[in-house]
Amino acid sequence: MTIEIPGHGQFSDSDDEWTATLSVDVVGDDVEFTVIHDDEDVDLDDVATCLSNYRSLPESALKGSTPEVFANYREMAEEFSAEERADYGIPEIADPDDVWNFVTLGTSATVELDDETDEWFVITENECEWEPEHGLQLVLRNGEEVTRVSQYDGFIRE
Description:
This protein has helices at residues 44-55, 59-63, 66-77, 82-88, and strands at residues 2-5, 9-14, 17-24, 29-36, 103-104, 108-114, 119-128, 136-141, 145-150. By secondary structure, the protein is α+β, with helices and mostly antiparallel strands. Strand 1 and strand 2 form a beta hairpin.
């Protein structure tokens, strides 16, 4: 089965997930989206808006979270000595603006409704050179505002 999400085409429908591959400007590639829903009363226009926002997200929206991304790097880097960082290939990043040079935006994203706020979020798992095991998670409210930066855990909030 499939479901049509306005402006984004057909998504495969499997129980409580809809999936499709769509282009995302800021990623510069196609992204496999998984929309998680737990009822049949989903407002498709809200999902479509969230998807549209993320698909057309300007780079500046991500750059606005540079302090949080740099803090994520610093937290990880401080767990190791300079020698250990060199041994493990953890980069030395002095300037917060350079942190994005060590991040590769992911090509899969989960779109999920927060039951507490009734808002849709995009959760992305990204690669970062300082944490190859867990990666870097970015959570975006309505696909447009970064609200959480962390190691990947798949959750909207801590």
